[in-house]
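The material for today's practical consists of a large collection of protein records. Read left to right, the backbone structure tokens trace the chain's path through space. An example says more than a description, so a record of this kind follows:
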Amino acid sequence: MIVFYLSGDRVFSTDQNAINGLYNKRHFGKLVEGKLFLSLLEATYLVERGKIEVREGKRKLTVEELMNLGRERDELFDAKYLVYKDLRDRGYTVKSGLKFGSHFRVYRRGMDEHSQWLVWVLPENSRLSPNDITARVRVAHGVRKNMIMAIVDEDADVTYYKVEWVRF
């Protein structure tokens, strides 16, 4: 079992198996100075699947404890996790979309090419302004990506909507 250690709002490992298997082959996390860092979303996903364990000191954290840590830091953590999990389970590579004003950037398979989609996660009861939608679509269009809204309903089902410019 690959062991990661909690460090603020992420986890890290220096284990070469983690770097080779999770980063190089499956595109999880970010490699910085010989350490593989995973977000809490990635860590929760991998713990849930039995691929890694996360420790805080010597204590092993459960999936629920990781979820609670995520919820403390992000009110949309549950919705983001459902979308992250759904996309990963479908075989996509999912990375942070923060620098593009979205929650995720999504790659078809692996990371050999540029990401194709920017995904914005919203609970179904969210109120959207036209300006919010326009701003996100404009950014996606400007970086040649498709804008996807991932709507999470109260039954934890995810529905994806592609939002794009239409020219008449």
About this structure: The chain has a mean pLDDT of 93. The helical segments are 16-24, 40-48, 63-73, 77-89, 130-142. Residues 2-72 form a domain with the MutS, DNA mismatch repair protein, domain I fold (CATH 3.40.1170.20). The longest helix spans residues 77-89.
